[in-house]
Design brief:
Chain A is mainly alpha-helical. Chain A is built from five helices and two strands; from the N terminus they run ββααααα. Chain C has a single domain, classed as Transmembrane di-heme cytochromes, Chain C (Fumarate Reductase Cytochrome B subunit), CATH 1.20.950. The chains are: A mainly alpha, B mainly alpha, C mainly alpha.
Chain lengths: 110, 500, 241
C-alpha cells in the first residue's frame, strides 16, 4: 500500500513502512498519523527525530532502553520509560514510531 | 493497548476444552510471502518456479529419504485421534486443520498419492490427493499455523512429531519459491550481520555501553558487558532481543550481574550476536548449519573455553542437541565444559556452590509462576539430570523469590502449552493466530492467578517473552507481567559495600 | 488348493513388503538428535520407554482414556488370538499355545469390544470423524469381521476342525490340500489374506514404524556423544585455532 503525499507516491511494505529511509518527510508522517487518527504532539516528534538521528548513525532502530533514556533526557525523567512511550504510540514505540519515522520495521524475536 | 482488533478475542473458559470443529475458522490467517531478496539470500528461488508441482513432489521424496523421522511419520499414523485436542492453535481457533493429525495429513495425503501403492490405485479410499494449487495454498496456510512445539507428539502413541512434518513442508515451500517473509528475512539478517534484528557492531557496542551505565547507576557496581573481548573464558550467545527489547534486556542485565558477582570472565561476540537459529523453523539444514557455524567461529576467534547460551528456547534445543552435529565437534572447549551450557545451569551451579549472594526478599513484591518454554521442555535438557530442564529453572526461581506458584500440571513440564508465537510465527500479520493460540496458556495463568494472586509469569525464551508482552493485554493482563528469569536473579543479588 | 496358493502369495507379499519397509526405515538416516524430552540416557532406558509405549500405550493413556481402553483391549485381544492360532500350525500343539487357547475366544470378545468402541468413536467424535478416510473405517470393519467370523465358528457354525488342521499343517509342510468348504471359514481366511496383503502398504505400518521413530528410540546423549549426520558435508572440523 504505497502512500501518496502531494501527488508523489512513496512505496511501502505490506504494513506501511517506507521502503526508502531517505525519501521521508514530515508530510509523510502527518499522512500516516492522519490515517491512524493519531494527533501528533511535540513529544511524538521528539521521538521521531531521535529515531531518525539514531538510524542515520547506526542503520538500526535504537534498543528500547536507549530510546527511553533519550526521551527521558529530552522530555523529563518521569517520561523516560516504556509506559510513557506506549501512551504516545499505542501500537508500540518500536513499531508505530519507527513507521512514522520512516525506519524499516525492526523484526526478530521482538 | 488501544490497537485496532478486527477479530473476537476468545473468552477464557473455566477449563481447557475442545472448542468444537469449525472448518476454515483460521484459513484466512497466513504470513506475508517472502520476496525475491528474502528468498535468494537463503539460496531459494525468488518466486514460484515453473514445474513447481513436480519439484515439490521430488523434494518430498528426497526428504523422506533423508529423514527417518519423516518417512516413519508419513507411514505410521493410524488416525486414532489422540492428538486432535492437544494443539493450542486448535484449542484457540477450532479450525480442524490445526488438529495435528489433520495438519500432517495435508502433506501425508500427497505423499500417499505419489509414493504409496494404495494412494496411486485408490486415492479416494485412502484419502490421497493430487498436489494442486489449492493444496499448496493449504500447506502455506496451515504449516505456518504450527509453532513446532511438539506437544502433540507427547500424546501420540507412536510418537509422531508434527514439528518435523511442518519443517519438511516449509522446506518444500521454500524450494519451490514460496517461503515466508518474516523467517527468511530474519535468517538473511543473521547471514549478513550476525543477528536476527540486524544490529550492526557499532549499534551493539553503543547499546551495551548504555546498559553498563544503567546498571552502575542502579546498583553502584561497575558491571561490564564486554564485546569481542579475546581471551575471555566464556562466550555468551544470547538472542538479540536481549539487547533490544523489554523484558528481555532485564534478563541480559541479570546474566551480567551474575557473571560479575561470580567473578567469571566472559564476552559477547559481534560475529555471533544471536542465539536463535531460525533455520530450524524452515527445516533448512544448510541455513541452520550456516547460522550455527558463526557461533563456532566466534568461539575460536575469541579463544574462549566455554560457550553459554542465554534465555532462548529453540536456540537451546539447537545448542543442546544439534550444535556439534552442525558445526563439527567443539573439541577446543575446556574439557570440564565440552558442550554448550545454559545460563540457567551456570546460575544454578553458582547458587549451589554458594558463589552468589542472594536475598530472595528483594523479590517479595512479586508472586510469580513459571512458563515452561516448549523447546526447552520437550527439546532439550539441563544439568545432566533427567527432567533437569524443568527442575533447574524452578530451583533457581525458588532460590531468588519467596512466592512461586505452579500452573496446572497438564499445562506445564513436558505437557506445557506453547506461548502461541513460536516456530517462526512471531510476526504481526499473524496476531489473530497468536492471540488465539495463547488461549490455553492464558487459561492456565488465570487459574493460578485466581488461586494465588500472581503478579508475574517468568520465562526463559525470547519468543515467549515477546509473544506474552504482546498478547497478555488482549486477555486483561498487563504487558509487563512477563519477566525474564534472570531479572529475578539479578534483582535478588546482594552487593557488598566494599565492591562499590 | 486355491486357498493355499492365495495364502502363500499373501504371506510372501506380507513378508517381502514388510521387510522392504523395515529396511527402508533402518537405512534412512536420522541426521539430528530429536528424542522427545525428557528422554532416557541409556539403551536400557530406551528399551523401557518402547516397552511402556508398545505394551501399555503410555502416551495414549495420557492423551485419551477411552481411546486407550478400546485400543488396548483390541491390541491385547489381537495378540492372544493371533498366538492361539498357532494351534493350527504346530503338531503337536506347542505347550504354551495350548495354554492360551482356552482364552482365545475371550480375547476375541475383547477385540470386538475394543473395535466397536474405536468405530463408535470414529463415527461419533466429530474431531475423529473429520480425520477419517474410508479406509480408516474399513480397517476397523475388517478386523471386526475377522473377529466376529472367528467367534461365530467358535460358537455356532463349527468348521471341520480336522480338515482345517490338515489344510494348515499342509501349508507349513508344503503339502497343499483343500480348505474345508464352509462359507464362514472362507470369509475368515479370505479376509486374513487381505489383511496380509494390505499390511505393508497401509497405516498398519505403525507396528514396525514405532520401533524406528527417533523421537522414541534416540537417547538423550548429545552432550556426551558427537552425533554425525551422514549426508551433511561439514561434519569434520574445518578450522583449527
Amino acid at each position: 500500500m504505497p502512500i501518496e503525499v502531494d501527488g508523489t507516491i512513496y512505496d511501502t511494505d505490506e504494513e506501511g513502512y517506507l521502503l526508502d529511509f531517505n525519501v521521508w518527510s514530515r508530510e509523510i508522517t502527518l499522512k500516516m498519523a492522519e490515517s491512524d487518527s493519531c494527533e501528533l504532539t511535540d513529544s511524538h516528534w521528539e521521538v521521531i527525530h531521535f529515531l531518525r538521528e539514531y538510524y542515520e548513525e547506526y542503520q538500526i532502530a535504537p534498543a528500547i532502553r536507549i530510546l527511553t533514556k533519550a526521551v527521558g533526557r529530552k522530555l523529563g525523567k518521569e517520561k523516560g520509560n516504556s509506559k510513557y512511550l506506549y501512551q504516545l504510540y499505542p501500537e508500540g514505540p518500536a513499531k508505530q514510531a519507527c513507521r512514522y519515522a520512516g525506519l524499516p520495521k525492526p523484526t526478530g524475536c521482538v | 493497548m488501544t490497537e485496532k482488533i478486527d477479530f473476537d478475542v476468545p473468552e477464557i473458559p473455566a477449563r481447557i476444552e475442545d472448542p468444537g470443529v469449525q472448518p476454515h475458522a483460521s484459513s484466512h490467517l497466513k504470513p506475508y510471502r517472502a520476496q525475491h531478496q528474502h528468498q535468494e539470500a537463503l539460496g531459494f528461488p525468488g518466486e514460484l518456479v515453473d514445474g513447481w508441482q513436480e519439484k515439490a513432489i521430488d523434494k518430498l521424496g528426497e526428504l523422506t529419504g533423508k529423514y527417518r523421522s519423516l518417512q516413519v511419520f508419513m507411514d505410521s499414523c493410524m488416525k486414532c485421534g489422540a492428538c486432535t485436542d492437544k494443539c493450542h492453535y486448535y484449542l484457540g481457533t477450532g479450525d480442524p486443520n490445526n488438529m495435528p493429525v489433520a495438519r500432517q495429513d495435508l502433506l501425508r495425503n500427497v505423499y500417499r498419492r505419489y509414493y504409496t501403492l494404495p494412494g496411486k490405485l485408490f486415492p479416494k479410499l485412502v484419502g490421497a490427493v493430487d498436489l494442486t494449487e489449492d493444496v499448496l495454498d493449504q500447506w502455506y496456510t496451515y504449516f505456518h499455523q504450527c509453532s513446532q512445539c511438539r506437544r502433540c507428539s507427547v500424546f501420540c502413541p507412536v510418537g509422531i512429531d508434527t514439528s518435523e512434518v511442518s519443517m519438511a513442508a516449509r522446506e518444500i515451500l521454500d524450494t519451490v519459491g514460496t517461503g515466508q517473509k518474516y523467517v527468511n528475512e530474519v535468517i538473511g539478517k543473521v547471514h549478513r550481520l550476525g543477528n536476527n534484528l540486524g544490529l550492526p557492531e557499532p549499534a551493539l557496542a553503543d547499546t551495551l555501553e548504555g546498559l553498563e551505565e544503567d546498571i552502575e547507576e542502579e546498583i553502584g557496581v561497575p558491571v561490564r558487558l564486554p564485546l569481542d573481548q579475546a581471551g575471555a573464558d566464556i562466550l555468551l550467545v544470547t538472542p538479540s532481543a536481549d539487547f533490544f527489547a523489554e523484558p528481555h534486556v532485564d534478563g541480559l542485565i541479570g546474566y551480567a550481574k551474575v557473571f560479575h558477582q561470580a567473578g567469571l570472565s566472559w564476552t559477547l561476540s559481534s560475529h555471533a550476536s544471536e542465539a536463535a537459529n531460525f533455520g530450524l523453523f524452515i527445516g533448512s539444514y544448510d541455513n541452520m548449519q550456516q547460522v550455527a557455524k558463526r557461533i563456532r567461529q566466534a568461539a575460536l576467534d575469541l579463544g574462549v573455553k566455554r560457550i553459554v547460551f542465554g534465555e532462548c528456547g529453540h536456540a537451546w534445543r539447537v545448542a543442546y542437541n544439534f550444535l556439534s552435529t552442525l558445526t563439527g565437534p567443539l573439541e577446543f572447549l575446556d574439557t570440564a565444559f565440552p558442550s554448550p551450557q545454559h545460563v540457567v545451569e551456570v546460575t544454578h551451579n553458582l547458587l549451589q556452590s554458594g558463589r552468589l549472594q542472594v536475598d530472595p526478599s528483594a523479590n517479595d513484591d512479586k508472586r510469580v509462576t513459571y512458563h515452561d518454554s516448549c523447546n526447552v521442555a520437550r527439546g532439550s535438557g539441563m544439568g545432566d539430570i533427567p527432567g533437569g530442564q524443568m527442575l533447574l529453572p524452578r530451583q533457581v526461581i525458588n532460590a531468588v523469590c519467596n512466592n512461586f506458584f505452579e500452573m496446572p500440571a497438564n499445562t506445564t513440564g513436558d505437557a506445557t502449552f506453547c506461548c502461541g508465537g513460536g516456530g517462526g510465527l512471531l510476526t504481526d500479520e499473524l496476531i489473530e493466530l497468536r492471540v488465539k493460540g495463547a488461549l490455553p496458556r492464558m487459561q492456565a495463568l488465570q487459574t493460578v492467578d485466581k488461586a494465588h494472586d500472581i503478579t508475574h509469569m517468568v520465562a526463559i525464551c525470547a519468543i515467549c517473552k515477546s509473544q506474552f508482552a504482546k498478547v497478555l493485554p488482549y486477555y486483561g493482563f498487563q504487558m509487563d507481567q512477563i519477566l525474564s528469569l534472570h531479572q529475578l536473579v539479578g534483582d535478588a543479588l546482594v552487593w557488598k559495600v566494599n565492591e562499590v | 488348493m486355491f486357498a493355499g496358493w492365495l495364502l502363500y502369495l499373501a504371506f510372501a507379499i506380507f513378508i517381502l513388503g514388510l521387510l522392504a519397509r523395515i529396511l527402508r526405515y533402518a537405512r534412512t538416516p536420522a541426521p539430528l538428535k530429536i528424542p522427545l524430552m525428557p528422554a532416557p540416557r541409556t539403551t536400557g532406558g530406551v528399551v523401557l520407554r518402547l516397552l511402556q509405549e508398545v505394551l501399555l500405550f503410555r502416551s495414549l493413556f495420557r492423551a485419551s482414556r477411552w481411546t486407550w481402553v478400546f485400543g488396548w483391549l483390541f491390541h491385547a485381544g489381537l495378540l492372544i488370538v493371533a498366538l492361539s492360532h498357532l494351534q493350527y500350525f504346530t503338531d503337536p500343539i506347542w505347550g504354551w499355545v495350548a495354554m492360551i487357547v482356552p482364552f482365545s475366544h475371550m480375547a476375541a470378545y475383547a477385540m470386538v469390544v475394543g473395535l466397536t468402541g474405536l468405530l463408535c468413536r470414529r463415527i461419533m467424535v466429530v474431531r475423529i470423524r473429520y480425520i477419517s478416510a474410508p479406509s480408516d473405517y474399513l480397517m476397523l470393519v475388517l478386523f471386526l469381521v475377522l473377529a466376529g467370523s472367528g467367534l461365530l465358528m467358535h460358537h455356532v457354525f463349527y468348521p471341520d476342525i480336522l480338515g482345517l488342521r490338515h489344510f494348515t499343517l499342509g501349508l507349513v509342510s508344503g503339502n497343499l490340500s483343500a480348505l474345508p468348504a464352509q462359507w464362514l471359514l472362507w470369509v475368515h481366511i479370505g479376509l486374513f489374506a487381505l489383511l496380509l496383503l494390505i499390511f505393508p502398504f497401509s497405516k498398519l505400518l505403525h507396528a514396525p514404524g514405532v520401533f524406528f521413530n527417533p523421537v522414541f528410540t534416540q537417547r538423550d546423549n548429545a552432550r556426551g556423544k558427537h552425533h554425525v549426520n551422514p549426508w551433511s558435508e561439514n561434519t569434520e572440523p574445518d578450522d583449527k585455532r
